[in-house]
## 1
Amino acid sequence: MPQSSPSHPERFNDLLSWLDENRETAGASYLELRRGLVKIFTWNQCADPEGLTDVTFDRVIKKLPGLKESYEGNPRLYFYAVANNLIKEQRKAARSQVPLDSLDFPTDASLTDEQETQEMRSDCLEKCLQTLSADKREMILSYYSREKSEKFTHRAEIARRQGVSIATLRVRMLRIRTSLEECIESCLDKQVKNG
């Protein structure tokens, strides 16, 4: 069993089969998804990225029987949505548990505005990703999922699977990214107007 597997070992096989029918591919997908979730929690400055990743898997596993029948699309997106909810819960809990006299309030109001804008952008990105077809959503998430030297070999593999050159893949990704950026800007404008 892979490292730090979820706390429901009897349902872990069901999770792997949901990620991919091929056991070996499913194991690799699980480890890649786990690393990705840890990064997301780290980027969002969560105190225990590994622990929150475990919680994410546990929550998905609890809903897995219904999910396998009703959820359509890439399972990774469901995990990312659960992780996003956990991040929001963590932030809310942190705000409610810290006494006011121990807080260091930012002297510059723009810092708070920047944090709000970042949260709004994140919400809009989530909404805009849902407007894409499942194939495009999976492709763009996969395309930007790696860093440094890993990204080049990963992107070459995506191009090979798609049967296109890397240059053609870049053009496709640019189109998808441009449409996402337009959607996000439109979403942000609506939030500001309704604000």
## 2
Amino acid sequence: MLLRWFFELRYLFGRVPWDTGVTPPEVTAFLDHTPRGRALDLVCGTGTNAVEMGRRGWEVTAIDFSSQAVQAARRRAAAARLLITVVQGDVSDLHGVHGPFDFVLDIGCFHTLTREGQARYAAHVARRTLPGSTFMLYTFLGGRNQGSELPTEDSLRRLFAPAFALTSVDHGTDGRHASAWFTFLRTG
């Protein structure tokens, strides 16, 4: 609950340094080489990536638990004259989000979840995708973070198996944190 208020206040006062307004090159490269389909943007923030996918012809559903972020994403989609479904909800409980989706994107949410939340999240993502779907995840790596379990490459492989196969990892850093882009392919 405290985390939710933190984000509500940050969005309310416009102090969201993680929301750059620019779709990352890893995502645009994927979109450049992938046929359009249905996309799910997990923790969409102000809708930057949802709008980019919509502009490229994807049918987009976006979700965030911050009401301020959801309102901003809806305004951004409306300004772009795109029909994007933006819902307020919890990414570890996607009961109100209906798939299947061909592409699922998470930039920076997964590492904020508890271990139990991560397990629920993985199960929900698997249930809303079909074989051949792509799941892209950008996350911090390693250790513990204020009660959340920061994943490792091995823990992600185990958590998303057998539904997903890890097809690529691009390691990097984000400030003081080790981070990586993970691309998974829905297998069976």
## 3
Amino acid sequence: MTINFLKTFYYKNYSVFKETRTFLDAYIIYKYLNFEPNIKNFLEIGCFKGAILSLVVEVSNTQQNILIDPVMSRIKKTLPKDMFANTTLIENKSDNVNWNTFPKFDLINLDNQSTPSNDIKNCFKIAHENSLILLNQWWREGMNKSRKILKTNGWTPWLKLDQCEWYSKKTLMPFINDLINTGEITNFARIYKGSEDDDCLWRISAPQALYDNVRLIENYIK
């Protein structure tokens, strides 16, 4: 049985993660991990305190997780040791990594503030047609270059959340329709099509009241 979101390590430690991974971002990732059972390999560049890894470990049956970050002390202090069972921590800058040694990844999270465009180009080597790329902190200066690289190489900007944009070559409409039709997300957040001038095809946002008092979400998630 899949772990309930309210029982995840992320939610139980929300005060630790909330500044870098809002509950809305985390919950939609959680829903995708439940919707897509074939995620076996996860790569994260810039893991900070490990919010996404904690969800991947608890929800998906991943065989290999690789995290790249020049400072691993933060995630080691935050997550329990058993969450690193299938995880390789590479304490280095992504530019210094040998990308040719990596397998193909199903889920890639890019949260590198220094060289996001270089990371994206390198990720093309280790992504496949059904991979999902999360481009984090989309509001940062220079991210338009990263968006252009993704779009030019056939990656569709499907979804924009608080802190990340979702890119995939495959259609994410089955997942988006599932979010809409099950109704749970629409009880506490708004999901809507992006405008013609928007960066992404779909957006999801939640009212400020839920961020001020995240326990309100417990009224909607069972």
